[in-house]
Amino acid sequence: MKLIINNKKAGFDYNLLKKEKFIAGIELLGIEVKLIKQKKVSIKNSYCKLINNNIYIFDMYISNSNIYNTKFSPKRRRKLLLKKKEINKIKKQIKNLNIIPTEIVLNNRNFIKIKFFLAKSKKKYEKRNLRKIKSLEKANFKKLYIKY
């Protein structure tokens, strides 16, 4: 699978449950497929919701390029293509969890897929502690690097 776009913010804002990883296709317009393959897409603030036994992705931004003279809503909701078994599995586990997309990939047959996880949102103090730990690690690494 070839990585098109990665959501780095998801790992910082959420505790991703690594056991609960799903891969789904997306219902797209033809022009959207072209723009995604050109990497004119962002899933930074996007999230998924379960509505009427279907999962939709919201706030996935695909740039509305004037090159192709087509008009579509860049942040419209898009349906994720999953099997009923997978949807039921998500339905059972979703109680206090969020569905967060992390990557857009191309599979072997050049189909666009989305990887998403069930996740629990982090509290502000957890994010603050994580930043503090990372900055201390960087400072210690610089000290060690300078000594040698």
Dominant shape:
globular
- The mean pLDDT is 86
Radius of gyration: 18 Å
Low-confidence stretches: none
Structural class: alpha+beta
The total strand number stands at 9
The share of residues in helices is: 25-40%
Order of adjacent strands in the largest pleated sheet: 1-8-9-2-7-5-4
Strand residue percentage: 35-45%
Give the biggest sheet: 7 strands, antiparallel
Distance between the termini: 40 Å
Tally of DSSP helical segments: 4
Give structural attributes:
alpha+beta, 37% strand, 32% helix, seven-stranded antiparallel β-sheet, single chain, 148 residues
Describe the structure.
The structure is a single chain. The chain is an alpha+beta fold and 148 residues long. It is 32% helix and 37% strand. It has four helices and nine strands. The protein has helices at 8-13, 30-37, 84-93, 124-147, and strands at residues 2-6, 14-26, 41-42, 47-51, 54-58, 61-62, 78-81, 98-106, 112-121. Strands 1-8-9-2-7-5-4 form a seven-stranded antiparallel sheet. Strands 3-6 form a two-stranded antiparallel sheet. A hairpin with a 2-residue loop joins strand 4 (47-51) and strand 5 (54-58). It is globular, with a radius of gyration of 18 Å.
SSE inventory with pairings:
Layout: E1 2-6, H1 8-13, E2 14-26, H2 30-37, E3 41-42, E4 47-51, E5 54-58, E6 61-62, E7 78-81, H3 84-93, E8 98-106, E9 112-121, H4 124-147
Antiparallel strand pairs: 1-8, 2-7, 2-9, 3-6, 4-5, 5-7, 8-9
